Amino acid sequence: MRKLGAILLAATMTFGVAACGGGSDAGEELSEEPVTLRFTWWGSDARHQRTQQVIDLFKKEHPNITVKGEFKDWNGYWESLATTVAANDAPDIIQMDELYLASYAERGALLDLGTASKHLKTGDFEASALDTGKVDGKQYALPVGLAAYSIVVNTDLLAQYGVQLPDDSTWTWDDLKRIGGEISKASGGKVTGVQSWGFNDAGGLNIWARQAGASLFDDKGNVAIPPAVLAKYWTYLADMAKSGVAPPPSVTVERASAGLDQSGTATNTSVFATWWNTQLTSLTAASGKKLKLLKLPGEATAASPGAYYKPSMFWSISSRSKHPAEAALFVDFLANNEAAAKVLLTDRGVPANTKIRTAITPQLAETDKAAVAYLDTLKVGAAPRVTPNGASSIEAILKRHTEEVLFGRSTPDEAAAAFIKELQAEIDAA
Q1: FRET partner for 19 with CA separation of 20 to 30 A, picked from 35, 103, 199, 380?
Q2: What sections of 38-111 are H helices per DSSP?
Q3: Which of 337, 336, 338, 318 has the alpha carbon at shortest distance from 327?
Q4: Is beta strand 142-147 parallel, antiparallel or unpaired with respect to 134-135?
Q5: Contact 295, 272 (CB under 8 A)
Q6: Residue 150: strand, helix, or coil
Q7: Cα–Cα distance between 390 and 412 in angstroms, integer?
């Protein structure tokens, strides 16, 4: 992270001087001359193959435009991107993640997609989805796929232990703890009612803050979650571990650092767990059991909706692209073309484009259809503020303080104060 920060600092100086002078008008006419675009993304071999198929489809429609793919795994992707941006050699089309969006947008490295509306249409995207790609009111990124936080429940285990499926339109966090306790007791501790969370992402913390009428960050990008709300979050997790509703801290931490197939859900050792809805297919395959998506507890009585859309990733365009009109046309193809969508399906998440989502649903497996249905019926609030520049280390900070609380090395109040201070220092230093 320190090395990446240094490279991004170099990018700051590069774009602070030159951003306004690079590229051309994204609304200009398309060239009839040969054009070459560079397109970078991260992912698996299967994603690479699907993406190349879409590139080939685009080439058939636009024979004068060549798109060259540059793909890497997640670990090497961000250092490579930061290096190319700092060297004024960024790819034209960039697969972007929410954690880094503000860092690149605020440095002038990304094109305002609002200037590309002649070639890039967004009419089939909900406003709440588009808002996830905005920084300071400008659309620097177009969401590719959407996910939403959910509770995944193993209905086979519920039936085995004689526990009724809760009504997810009215249940509370206390209900989850109570029902989880019934399961842990009925199984004699062999199966815990709930798999704990609070390690790998800020999804649960964001939900908790939003339901309390607060937010993780304010509009200016400062840490805004009240210490009391954060302390209550960790108190809840600690209480579940102490009472046996969730596994002991050592088991929880071990699962958190392992892959999905080692989770309590996948191994059928926890009945309820927080997951993104799009993970249902993988979890079902790993567990071999019947799983169901439930809305989050507490939504019915929350001060404001906790649920929100989380983009799986975004499409962005370099502000230094020499061919912004053609780059916008290609992003439009990725986002709006049905033939392309039927190749990509849900590889990059449930499509954010509602028309495309409907078009591909008949091709999906039943679990993927359930993930789509969950999104279509979910009531979401306004998009959270994009992770501010400097806060991309939030997951590591959150994980560390969650462990401190679970193992009793910090009280929830102490962890809350330390978390806020540490995260704000990272933002201030960026």
Answers
A1: 35
A2: 45-61, 74-86, 98-106
A3: 318
A4: unpaired
A5: no
A6: strand
A7: 24
Q: Which residues pair with 96 in a beta bridge?
A: 314
Amino acid identity of residue 250, one-letter, is: S
Residues 6+ apart with CB under 8 A from 402: 198, 199, 234, 237, 415
Question: Who contacts 5 (Cβ-Cβ below 8 Å, separation ≥6)?
Answer: 430
Query: Residue 428's pLDDT is what?
Result: 96
Under a CB-based contact definition with an 8 Å cutoff, are residues 134 and 219 in contact? no
- In 3D space, the residue among 292, 330, 321, 241 whose CA is nearest the CA of residue 58 turns out to be 330
Contact 332, 121 (CB under 8 A): yes
Q: Pairing relation of β-strands 149-154 and 142-147?
A: unpaired
Residue type, 34: P
Of 180, 109, 99, nearest to 140 (Cα)? 109
Beta strands in 339-380 (DSSP E): 350-351
Sign of CA dihedral 227, 272, 211, 199: positive
pTM for the predicted model, two decimal places: 0.87
Above 70 in pLDDT, residue 17?
no
Beta strands in 236-372 (DSSP E): 270-276, 291-294, 310-317, 350-351
Domains of the chain: 2-146+311-373 (3.40.190.10), 149-307+393-429 (3.40.190.10)
Q: Which residue has the tokens 């297919």?
A: 281
- And the tokens for 129? 């989805």
Q: Would you call 3 exposed, middle or buried from its count of C-beta atoms within 10 A (0-12, 13-18, 19+)?
A: exposed
- Helices and strands counted in the chain (H then E): 17, 12
Report the C-alpha gap between 82 and 15 in whole angstroms.
12
For 194-249, how does the pLDDT look when each residue is reduced to its tens digit (9 = 90+)?
999 988 767 899 999 999 999 999 999 999 999 999 999 999 999 999 999 999 99
